[in-house]
Write a structure and sequence with these properties.
Distance between the termini: 38 Å
Strand order of the largest sheet: 16-20-19-18-17
Largest sheet: 5 strands, mixed
CATH class: Mainly Beta
Structural class: mainly beta
Helix content: under 10%
Number of helices: 5
């Protein structure tokens, strides 16, 4: 049984409680924690795509203010978080462009803005915590995420450089890059001379190169690689950058502003034990449009394709944590997505894997009850160049991973995210966060882990993983990188839909003296504040101590 396997994998659980759509799971370990929703700010709940959209937030401990980008209104919302139970909007700051990310350090707020066209150079605007404009500097095309280094000396900007199309008269495909801004005490004095940009040269060493995807039509390496998210080492010397579409990460030497290597992340074999997935949204026998929970092994390979990345220290070593969301290129002139049912499969290749029938018949692999509905890429898998595919590759790994500083895989959560949601919130399994969309995402990335934050509580390091589609926050104790333990699942759907940005606030920085998790769900346009509680009170002294020690995780 699913629950029995999960219990064996994560330790005995003393309590499972499901109240409405709010889920609490308490582990028996005395160091267990729970997420308690205590506050919420609404940027304007609406299904209108042009309505306000809160995606990313940043917190300044000195002013006790939260800064949240309001995507569609193109403004910065400034919230008073002095009382986290009742966040108050105190100011809105027009940005004059589309914001993608915000970061704050020592009273300086930085906002990443797209250019007039997303293929144009973008910019970073600087403000103080009262919303007063301080400076603006140009960076690369489509700045998607930015973060300060732990020492505050650098501001790093991931310039994704997405194309507007392929093979069209007006097609533009800018180069991906990372801009590095050297920060001084007086940011008003910064000039373009303080901005260096690291680009992708073909001479950069590549590791596990066979799994690095460079596939945009007529694209160079620099144009094809698309930086998504950045984490910085504790010593502020090294950054790791996710290249989501490319199924890779890049390692950046900050001081020299050069990439030292690009590492392919490999592929996940969904035929292996504990790597199962639900592959169809229409697998009810006799029905053409209904799905069921059907998690099992299939002959497909998963591209990890992480979105968020964070780093931390454990036992003197640096580890990287990644949320393996997955992403596809879908543009005018080129789209890589295909349904398995539309592809011709090589019978001999799949017979070796235990699936000799590759037809669309009742027992065939390409039937909708099986893999027919599954979304895959047509850019991989046709290994011999004929009309048939020998392998199938899906977007994302439906998991989170821990890797060492060199990119080597240390741990992957396998199918646990799907198994847990199937058990704890079965009515919204692989949905868009509501019962009426049950199972509709099984054919495409499943629960879709995207947002990620790390935090230390009572000496233990926890990973908070947001499930963009299904909704809710998965919490794992990752103190031992080789053997993380599932702790709790907090799900506040349908009030909070599609968590995007996650932010951990340390106890020593928190307005109420308790560690907090701030979640920015983009579809519901909300900013939700969770208080992190101990579920056992027999070790309060450990909980109350300052967690800021030499092994503290990097602040992202």
């Amino acid at each position: 049984m699913v629950i029995e396997r999960l219990l064996m994998g994560v330790g005995l659980l003393s309590l499972f409680s499901i109240i409405g759509t709010s889920v609490t799971v308490e582990a028996s370990d005395s160091r267990s924690i729970a997420l308690k929703q205590i506050g919420r700010y609404s940027a304007g709940v609406s299904t209108n795509p042009d309505a306000p959209r809160a995606e990313i937030s940043a917190f300044d401990a000195g002013s006790k203010r939260l800064f949240s980008i309001n995507l569609n209104l193109r403004q910065l919302d400034i919230l008073d978080l002095s009382a986290p139970e009742t966040p108050v909007l105190v100011q809105t700051v027009p940005l004059g462009g589309k914001p993608n990310s915000v970061a704050v350090r020592r009273g300086v707020v930085a906002v990443a803005l797209e250019g007039t066209q997303k293929t144009d150079p973008g910019s970073v605007k600087f403000f103080n915590t009262s919303g007063m404009f301080l400076n603006q500097l140009s960076v690369g095309a489509l700045p998607d995420m930015l973060t300060f280094s732990p020492n505050g000396r650098w501001l790093l900007v991931a310039n994704e450089g997405e194309p507007n199309s392929y093979n069209q008269v007006d097609s533009v495909d800018p180069e991906g890059s990372v801009s590095i801004i050297e920060i001084r005490e007086d940011v008003t004095s910064l000039t373009q001379l303080d901005v260096r940009t690291a680009g992708f040269d073909p001479a950069i060493p590549q590791e596990n190169a066979s799994s690095i995807r460079v596939f945009g039509p007529n694209a160079t390496l620099a144009k094809d690689l698309e930086p998504e998210y950045i984490t910085v080492s504790k010593d502020s010397r090294t950054a790791w950058v996710t290249l989501q579409e490319n199924n890779a990460i890049a390692v950046l030497d900050i001081r020299s502003a050069t990439f030292t290597k690009i590492v392919g992340l490999g592929f996940k074999d969904h035929l292996q034990p504990n790597n199962q997935l639900d592959a169809s949204d229409r697998d009810v026998p006799g029905s053409s449009n209904s799905g069921i929970i059907n998690i099992r092994n299939w002959p497909v390979l998963g591209m990890y394709q992480p979105d968020s990345i964070a780093s931390y220290r454990a036992k003197g070593k640096t580890y990287l944590v990644m949320a393996n969301e997955g992403d596809a290129r879908d543009y005018a002139g080129f789209s890589e997505e295909a349904r398995v049912g539309s592809l011709a499969l090589d019978p001999a290749s799949f017979a070796v894997q235990g699936y000799p029938d590759v037809t669309t018949g009742t027992s065939g692999l390409r039937n909708n009850d099986h893999l027919g509905r599954l979304t895959v890429t047509h850019t991989l898998g046709n290994t011999d160049g004929d009309a048939e595919f020998e392998k199938l590759y899906v977007f994302g790994a439906r998991s989170f991973s821990i890797r060492n500083a060199d990119g080597g895989l240390v741990y992957d959560s396998g199918d646990e995210l799907e198994q847990l949601t199937a058990t704890l919130t079965p009515t919204t399994f692989n949905s868009n966060g509501a019962t009426d969309t049950f199972d509709t995402r099984s054919d495409n990335k499943g629960p879709e882990p995207e947002g990620l934050a790390l935090g230390k509580v009572a000496g233990q390091t926890y990973a908070f993983i947001g499930l963009e589609r299904t909704g809710g926050i998965m919490v794992y104790d990752i103190s031992n990188p080789q053997s993380p333990e599932f702790v709790t699942y907090a799900n506040t759907t349908p009030t909070d839909l599609s968590p995007e940005g996650l932010l951990f606030i340390k106890k020593k920085d928190s307005p109420n003296g308790k560690p907090l998790l701030v979640v920015s769900p983009e579809v519901s346009n909300t900013v939700t504040i969770f208080e992190i509680e101990r579920t056992k009170q027999d070790d309060q002294e450990e909980y109350d101590k300052d967690d800021n020690n030499e092994e503290d995780n990097d602040e992202q």
